[in-house]
Amino acid sequence: MSSNLNFEAQRPRISRREAVRRALLVAGGLVLAKHLSFRAFAAAPSAPAKAVIQIWMWGGPSHVDVFDPKPEAGYDYCGPLKTPIETNVSGIRIGELMPALAKQADKYSIIRSMTHDNNGHETASYIVQTGRQPGGRVVYPCVGAVVSKTKGYDAGYKGLIPPYVVLTEPQGRFDEAGFLGSRFRPFSTGGNPAQTPFAVEGVVAPGITEARQKERRELMHHLDSLAQALPQDPQIAAATQAENMAYDMILGDGAKVFDLSQEKPELRERYGKSKFGQSCLVARRLVERGVPYVTINYGGWDTHKENFQVMRRQLPEMDKGFATLLQDLADRGLLSSTIVWWGGEFGRTPKVQWEAPWNGGRGHWGKVFSEVLAGGGFKGGQVIGASDARGEEVKDRPVYPMDVIGSIYAQLGISPQTKLPNPEGLDTFVMPRPDEGIKSTGLLKEIMPA
Known about the structure:
Blueprint: H1 3-10, H2 16-25, E1 31-32, E2 51-57, H3 75-78, E3 85-86, E4 93-94, H4 99-102, E5 108-114, H5 121-130, H6 143-152, E6 164-167, E7 187-188, H7 210-223, H8 225-229, H9 234-251, H10 253-256, H11 265-271, H12 275-288, E8 293-298, H13 307-331, E9 338-343, E10 347-348, E11 364-365, E12 369-374, E13 382-384, E14 386-387, E15 394-396, H14 401-412, E16 419-420, E17 428-429, E18 439-440
Parallel strand pairs: 2-8, 2-9, 5-13, 6-7, 6-8
Antiparallel strand pairs: 1-18, 3-4, 5-12, 9-12, 10-11, 14-15, 16-17
Helix pairs in contact: 12-13
């Protein structure tokens, strides 16, 4: 990894509380990119999507155990998970531990030919999240940061909640704002939405009741003699406005979005009382309030050891939360305007490592892996591309990270020619230029409006 990337990764991060304060105060492949033009990634004319919920599968999930099963490859490849299940779309099968998602396949499309051939967590995350290759002079912002700028602050976003939220902890480079700077890093909630209350750092103070918060504010006003003496002073007026916004976040509508007690108990049960399931519910509440980008950081998929034990533990949890999110968004009329993007930095080695110390584990595999797209104008019930018989190589229709990102931007109405402010005065754009040589096959037209 280049020194640029190391330097970027080691820069001091601002606290979540400071992020809230600042937000309130500022209120090869088939072809190479050199054969493509910006026009190939033009925004969709109708721009159907308004928001993105990204389910980031930190660690890289096993594609052959989830959305690209290979039972015919034999036990050394599929292990005990040898019975994929049919979905509600004829001809599409998925892993046997996801019966709820099998009933929702008409709502999402599976990309089975993702590839970048990079097996490092941080570097692969950077590729998947930016569409660029690591190691260059410029550290680019990820999709969330770009959406935060173009569909958030640049679009006059006025919400109390920052326009880019991560549930619950940031990990790795997936939340990196790059040269856009700290203003466009996400607000990471911390806490656990499966607990009551959901202690969002900077919003809900653990151990302090709402009544106590109000008492503190009243005492502060009583002691603030300067504000009482100079109520018309511009600086004091600005500080008062910032304080009012902060308390609206803590005690008003801003805090309410994180209060899951407002939801029906039966709906919370449908999502699953796990941290992931309740994070899916919070994500729906956030996009319902107008937040344009939410990432659910879902860890635990780096299954070097005992892969199948992890799959049996976590896939039912993921199945329940992900499937309910899709159905809930659809029931509320939000799926048509909300992109749901599922995936991690790579897949896992298709051949199981049975020997000690792995004991049935799977290593990193960037040659081919799967992603899922739903909503926001993307068609459901489709499969793009294919891996080979053992899930080891791309067999048909390679798809590169740049292609997925460009398609998401197109659905959001973000032009690939949008120029991003660079502190060094360089010409940097939302999408790579043709002369950057980034591998691409273009937009995912198979699942996009004509």
